[in-house]
Amino acid sequence: MEHNRKIVKCRTCQSEIFFIKMNGKYHPVNVMPKLVYILDELEGLPAEWILTKGYESHFSNCPEAKHFRKNKD
């Protein structure tokens, strides 16, 4: 999976990340893609699991992710 995004460093852990737009908001993702399964559910066809490359949310492994949460419990 190729991207033409500007790679930057996370403000807290300094890992390389870039941002993707989802639902009108920008979210940080890790630069290195991973193999992931997604469920393809096209209307009228049986659901099918597909193995593809995808980018993981940086919040899933940033040690300082709590600093970016709106509700900092």
Explain this structure to me?
The protein has about 70 residues and is mostly beta strands. The chain has one domain (about 10-70). It is elongated, with a radius of gyration of 15 Å. The protein contains no helices and five strands.
In summary, what is this structure?
The chain is 0% helix and 40% strand.
In the sheet with the most strands, the strands line up as: 1-2-3
The counted number of beta strands is 5
The tally of structural domains comes to 1
Shape descriptor reads elongated
Number of continuous helical runs? 0
Low-confidence stretches: none
The structure class reads mainly beta
Proportion in helices = under 10%
Question: Major β-sheet, in short?
Answer: 3 strands, antiparallel
String of helices and strands: EEEEE
Question: Rg, please?
Answer: 15 Å
Distance between the termini: 36 Å
* pLDDT averaged over residues: 86
% residues in beta strands? 35-45%
List the helices and strands and how they pair.
Blueprint: E1 8-9, E2 16-22, E3 25-30, E4 34-40, E5 48-54
Antiparallel strand pairs: 1-2, 2-3, 4-5
Which features characterize this protein?
73 residues; mainly beta; 3-stranded antiparallel beta sheet; two-stranded antiparallel ribbon; 40% strand
